[in-house]
Amino acid sequence: MTVESPAELTVRAPERAPAAPPAAEDPAGGAAIVTRGLTKRFRGGQVAVDGLDLTVPAGSVFGFLGPNGSGKTTTIRMLLGLVAPTGGTHELLGLPLARALPAVGAVVEGPAFYPYLSGSANLLRFDAANPAASGRDAARRVGRALERVGLSAAAGKRYRAYSLGMRQRLAIAAALLTPRRLLVLDEPTNGLDPQGTREVRALVKEIAGDGTTVFVSSHLLAEVEQMCTHAGIMSHGRLVAHGTLTELHAGRSARLRVETPDLAHAAGILASLGLADVRAAGEEVTAELGEHAPDRVNAELVRQGVAVRGLAVARPSLEEVFVGLTGEGFDVDG
Amino acid sequence: MSTAEALVLPATRTSVTWRLLRSELALTFRRPRNLVMMAILAAVPIIIGVVIRLVGSEGDAGGMIAQTAGNSLMLTVVSLFVLVPLLMPVAVAVVAGDAIAGEAGTGTLRYLLTAPAGRGRLLAVKYLNAVLFGLALTLTVATAALLTGLVLFPAGDVTLLSGTTISLGEGLLRVLAMVGYVAAGMAALAAVAVALSTFTEVAIGAIAATVVLIIVTQVLRAIPQLDWLAPYLLPTRWTGFDGLLRDPVPMSEIWQSLLAFGAYIVLFCSLAWARFTGKDITS
């Protein structure tokens, strides 16, 4: 994990998150995406991405987070070769870009298809543009991809008549036409209803289960927390933190919350036990839990006669991590 | 899923390019807009034929019109003279100007490039597609004119513009040569339009710019003081196919025109390539 701004996170040895499947044999030493000093300065002088050092381990589900306008999409466009960086290097799957791309499926900034073609004709069109896909079994591939996202019934319908959710799913189907080692999804749940969002999440989990690395950008932190093993947080074109979710949470330790009428007494005990940042307010005492076991703390409180009405450990959400790192709110409306 | 499967490349680069070209041609020739343009242009020879048939029967028409009334092949020549200066170039400009800008406008360009079609390959396929559309358009117009001519006017030996007479068979060969000549001229225009298409994300902008260029060059051509410029302008060269109806055919002029088309193609394809391969795709 690297920390570039208010240094609150400790650097730890890389650790594989429990949910991550074993990485595929990879000549690049287990990294699906590596960027070094990746920078994009647009012609107007505006720096969209500033010295990005990012490593996405193979087999991970990597959440690429940040408010709208923080440089996520520009980064993704650079990774996919759509936009030329003005500085730094990047590598996908340890291969030169042209050779890596056939093994990379991508949804960039929402779906885009030919409105006058049917769903399956649209997929055939993009399949024809992939030099690693042969024309012979194209129809079978398209059928399978449509089935996977649940669009088989609408295969013959014109794209123009698709709903937003169907369009989003067709884009994912296009990204899944051939077997991929890396899937790049830029805001895949934008515009989806809760049911559609759940479906996409399930699909991402399933794809990751096959060993495919998934790189998913989002401005919805809660959503990423539910499906990712790793995350990187962008702010103003800079990567302010990245690592496994555990590491990110570790930086901002969980807080213990004790509900009790004996405020002062409880606060004193917590402080004497060595818990930091003890605060009492209303009917609650809170403190940083650190390495303490909450059950032991509770036992001690009760032993010394504190009436404990409730006790909880609040893990900070990624949003709180973000606010802590950047000192600013995570403005979803951007 | 096996990684090996993902990285297996089909036999040749040619087959990959051919598959993309076929997909491109299918898009072009199934798109209603393009089919309507072809149909309208194919209707022009029919209308001209019918009109000449009616006027010609009054026996007072002169020159090329009279020749048309006298021989079925001449309708093809007259039709091309009517269509080549503006209407056919506009139709070609619509397809060629749409090439890159149209994909950028709908956002499909980013998906074609991440597929990955490859920028050079995509541009080559787009250009080839526009050239083939120009050829198909010329063939369609010529075929419609030939069929109309055969129905409405007597077939037989053809009197050339220079007064000599050739057989119907040789006449057909010369019409075929004219089709090739006109298609080459449209290919030169397609290069200009595709180049303009790489500079914008609005297809109609590239199309309009090409049409404005055609009209401006037609105007420049009409100014006597700019006679020295005329040989370098595409519209001057386009109508040079009438040389194929003389005896002997002025081959040096024909070659010069084909060379001019080639120069336009090389110049504007290079421009398009330089622009497109270095462009940031932000659409």
List the helices and strands and how they pair.
The complex is a heterodimer of chains A (334) and B (283).
Chain A: E1 2-3, E2 31-41, E3 47-57, E4 61-65, H1 72-79, E5 87-92, H2 97-100, E6 104-107, H3 119-128, H4 138-148, H5 164-175, E7 182-186, H6 194-209, E8 213-218, H7 221-227, E9 230-235, E10 238-244, H8 245-251, E11 255-259, H9 263-273, E12 276-281, E13 284-288, H10 294-303, E14 310-314, H11 318-326
Parallel strand pairs in A: 4-8, 4-9, 6-7, 7-8
Antiparallel strand pairs in A: 1-10, 2-3, 2-5, 9-10, 11-13, 11-14, 12-13
Chain B: H1 3-7, H2 13-30, H3 32-56, H4 63-70, H5 74-83, H6 87-106, H7 108-114, H8 119-152, E1 158-159, E2 165-166, H9 168-197, H10 203-222, H11 234-238, H12 251-277
Antiparallel strand pairs in B: 1-2
Helix pairs in contact in B: 2-8, 3-4, 3-5, 3-6, 3-8, 5-8, 6-8, 6-9, 6-10, 8-9, 8-12, 9-10, 9-12
Structural summary, described in words:
Chain B: Keywords: Membrane, Transmembrane, Transmembrane helix. Chain B: It comes from Nonomuraea soli. Chain B: It holds the Pfam family ABC2_membrane_4. The complex is a heterodimer of chains A (334) and B (283). Chain A has 334 residues and is an alpha/beta fold. Chain A contains eleven helices and 14 strands. Chain A has two domains: 2-7 and 29-250, Rossmann fold, CATH 3.40.50.300; 253-322, YebC, transcriptional regulation domain (Alpha-Beta Plaits, 2-Layer Sandwich), CATH 3.30.70.980. In chain A, α3 (119-128) packs across α4. Chain A starts with a strand and ends in an 8-residue tail after the last helix. Chain B is an all-alpha fold and 283 residues long. The relative contact order of chain B is 0.13. Chain B has twelve helices and two strands. Classes of the chains: A alpha/beta (334), B mainly alpha (283). Chains A and B meet through α3 of A and α1, α2 and α7 of B.
